[in-house]
Amino acid sequence: MLKLSVITPDRTVLKECAVKSVTVPASNGEMTALPGHAELSSVLRTGIVSFEKGTGEKQNAAVSGGFFQIKEERAVLLAYTLELSSEIDPERARQAQIRAEEKLKTKRLERESPELLRPEHSRDVNATRSDAHVRDVHATRSDAHSRDVSAISSNAKATKYDEDFDLKKWEAKLERALIRQHTAKL
């Protein structure tokens, strides 16, 4: 038997519980560890952890990433968050899914067609662009102008990075909500 410990920043879920097997969502695919498994360390991705206790009882849990290590018949799972299927409220998980889907839809619309969401902002931007264009056509290209263009370009890149990060954050929240719902059904 393996001795499995499952730990999150908030609590110890299991402490050296005898298990026949443990299956984790490793970074390179699902992995099952049995007694006598070679020593290893792996990064976990968001997914479902399942294990079979020595009594034959099977349990599932939703995990949102972490680390997994096996050494000398001991398995340690350090998770960012982990909820056993018995702890998951299916309705709360469904509501989290709905919120994440709505937020993702809004974020994608903002990214693809910001003028559809903020028409008054779009008119102001277009007017500003026209004024700037007229000034640029008549102005000589100076070092100050080049610095301004560079600053605007850098600011645009930073804004795009922030938008990409925000979109990925909501995609991850949706993935966790879907996994929690699936785990609750197991």
Layout of strands and helices, then pairs:
Layout: E1 2-7, E2 12-26, E3 29-33, E4 40-53, E5 58-71, E6 74-79, E7 82-84, H1 90-112, H2 114-117, H3 119-138, H4 143-185
Parallel strand pairs: 1-6
Antiparallel strand pairs: 1-2, 2-3, 2-4, 4-5, 5-6, 5-7
Helix pairs in contact: 1-4
Explain how this protein is built.
This protein is an alpha+beta fold. The protein has two domains: 2-86, F0F1 ATP synthase delta/epsilon subunit, N-terminal (ATP Synthase, domain 1, Sandwich); 89-185. Helices cover 48% and strands 34% of the residues. The protein is built from four helices and seven strands, in the order βββββββαααα. It has helices at 90-112, 114-117, 119-138, 143-185; strands spanning 2-7, 12-26, 29-33, 40-53, 58-71, 74-79, 82-84. It has a five-stranded mixed barrel with strand order 1-2-4-5-6. Helix 1 runs antiparallel to helix 4 (143-185). The two termini are 24 Å apart. Residues 137-141 have low confidence and may be disordered.
In short:
This protein has 4 helices and 7 strands. By secondary structure, the protein is of the alpha+beta class.
